[in-house]
Write a structure and sequence with these properties.
The longest helix is centred in the last third of the chain and has 23 residues. This protein is an alpha+beta fold. Strand 1 and strand 2 form a beta hairpin. Helix 1 runs antiparallel to helix 2. The strands form two sheets. It has a three-stranded antiparallel β-sheet. A three-stranded antiparallel β-sheet has the order 4-5-6, with helices on one face.
């Protein structure tokens, strides 16, 4: 369980991270997603292409000696880029009244379960606010 609700506190637990708040301390709770960046793979792709063009234009190397390593490097880079199916990284964001923000990276397969638990918390918080005003 990511969120454990007690009558007056909310306990968070994910992996090695554990913390707790009272209901009135949490200002914002939600899941944010961030698109993965492939800067290293893209830079390596550009580098391999530049080296291949340099060998093709400015050197007297036989084509076989630079085309085969170039194709092998492209194959390796494509495998690195498309091996991981997840396109986004997910984070749980908790902001409190003290302007403190906690952001925990979660696994993509845990996103739905944690999302349901956050919805339960928000419903309970809404019910508590209605009882206070009624």
């Amino acid at each position: 369980m990511f969120i454990i609700l007690t009558p007056n506190q909310v306990h968070f637990c994910y992996g090695k991270n554990q913390w707790q708040y009272s209901f009135d301390e949490i200002v914002e709770l939600g899941i944010s997603r961030k698109k993965k960046a492939y800067f290293l793979v893209n830079a390596m792709f550009i580098l391999v292409t530049a080296i291949a063009y340099y060998c093709m234009i400015f050197s007297d190397i036989i084509d076989v000696y630079y085309i085969i390593p170039t194709l092998l490097c492209y194959t390796f880079l494509i495998i690195l880029r498309f091996n991981d199916r997840t396109e986004f990284e997910y984070f749980v964001l908790v902001r409190d009244i003290y302007q403190k923000e906690i952001s925990i990276k979660i696994k993509a397969e845990d996103r739905n379960l944690i999302g349901r638990q956050i919805d339960q918390y928000l419903n309970l918080q809404f019910d508590r606010m209605i009882k206070k005003t009624a």
